[in-house]
Write a structure and sequence with these properties.
Elements (H helix, E strand, L loop, with lengths): L3 E6 L1 H5 L3 H10 L3 E8 L3 H7 L9 H8 L4 E7 L3 H9 L12 H5 L8 E3 L3 H11 L10
The structure holds adenosine-3',5'-cyclic-monophosphate (CMP).
Length: 141
């Protein structure tokens, strides 16, 4: 589906009490929140979710961080959602993120980077299915 993407408000942003401000950015950017929940994921869940990064130098740090506290997972809808969300959050490394992007304003560094966004329509559907059940994705239908 080209109108859906998956987002995470990561443990650094939740801990910093930026959840509300980031949700506001999401809504003001024109996304519809189809589903969302606060979770404290296990190390095993983090390993499963970030399996494509296994073996990379930052992998251990990444999965430890993602399971270090609560995060908010979100299924977002908007036309061209994957690209729109990536533009809204900015570059992975906040030092390279454009002015006005979420990572520019809320991230600390490439590891503690406040938010996640899917990189393709295919991965968006996989990532949404990783965290949400059919009934959670039913919306108002
Ligand atoms: P995310 O969009 O969640 O996708 C994979 C994550 O790995 C990325 O955001 C960063 O948080 C993390 N990451 C990517 N590159 C590095 C790096 N060089 N060092 C530490 N973490 C990284």
């Amino acid at each position: 589906m080209e109108n859906q993407t998956f987002a995470i408000i990561k443990p650094d942003a939740v801990k910093n009490k930026d959840t509300g401000l980031i949700l506001d950015r999401i809504l003001k950017a024109g996304f519809h929140i189809l589903a969302g929940k606060l979770l404290h994921i296990s190390l095993q869940q983090a390993e499963g979710f970030y399996d494509i990064h296994k073996g990379k130098p930052f992998y251990d740090e990444l999965i430890e961080f993602m399971s270090s506290g609560q995060c908010m997972v979100l299924a977002l809808e908007k036309e061209n959602a994957v690209e729109e969300w990536r533009n809204t959050i900015g570059a992975t490394n906040p030092a390279e993120a454009a002015e006005g992007t979420i990572r520019k304003d809320f991230a600390t560094n490439v590891g503690l980077n406040a938010v996640h966004g899917s990189d393709s329509n295919e991965n968006a559907q996989k990532e949404i299915a990783f965290f949400f059940s059919d009934s959670e994705l039913r919306g108002n239908q």
